[in-house]
Amino acid sequence: MKKVLVCGAGGFIGGHLVKKLKKEGCWVRGVDLKENEFSISPADEFIIGDLTNQQTVREVLDMPFDEVYQLAADMGGAGYIFTGENDANVMHNSATINLNIIHQAHKAGAKKIFYSSSACVYPSFNQENPDSPLCTEDSAYPAMPDSDYGWEKLFSERLYLAFSRNYNMTVRIARFHNIFGPEGTWNSGKEKAPAAICRKIAEAPDGGYIEVWGDGKQTRSFLYIDECLEGVQRLMESDFAGPVNIGSEEMVSLNQLAEMIMKIANKPLTIKNIPVSHIGVRGRNSDNNLINEKLGWAPNAPLVQGLKKTYQWIREQVLCEMPAE
């Protein structure tokens, strides 16, 4: 039986990954600062622990796991990442986690390790045009990420690749592009655009309005969680180390995203664009040429398909929190 460690198992992607691995018959140990708040983890073991602590990491990585998935990070949506107020914690905590995990994975003889990087590593100067951003994997250098979160991700990519070169470790790296779906953060201040907009629409009265940050013309692509995990699995089963984009090429503006969700909800609301400084780059979209070339695969499910499932789940959460009349 394959033995697997999932770091960040209490989070959105990690929680879904544990479920997938268990369905495939793996023995899974999960670790996180907290358990998933939306569902009970099916992990064989779930350890509550701080991965910035070296002793915790030694206890968690106490055997030569067949696979280690490193998803743990200090992160959130634009309101958390781009204000600058959390940069020190983001860089210190995430870098410390990665330094601890790759070091102990090497000592424990881990057979294969996956690191979840981010599209935030791409240079801001290649993402100024919302209609034609450049996010090919080889465009990450010369480096100029738009946030310290992106700088830490880029550093950690190099960290994992250095251990791969120097210690003959099998490493796989993916750059995620805005993964979304049910059982993700939706009202904590760390939620990302799809969840935030779903919540606002679910809460808004008929005929009302929702706020969208910025002018709403900034563009992004969003990938549903099931396709993300399919991409990760294919990468892990391949002989390609990466980094490789795992994201959708269906680019939409934030106003268009809101309009799609309003149509799903059957709630014709008004969009009120709110000027804020922390909106990130003007345009970002996954380029899937490399994943097609190396893995013979790329995500292709339409955005609306995942939004329907996500909106329904968030609407149920909103209804549960509404006070009884």
From TrEMBL:
Residues 4-247 form the NAD-dependent epimerase/dehydratase domain. InterPro entries: Epimerase_deHydtase, NAD(P)-bd_dom_sf. SUPFAM superfamilies: NAD(P)-binding Rossmann-fold domains. The keyword NAD applies. Pfam families: Epimerase (PF01370). Keywords: NAD. The keyword NAD applies. PANTHER family: EPIMERASE-RELATED (PTHR43574). This is NAD-dependent epimerase/dehydratase family protein.
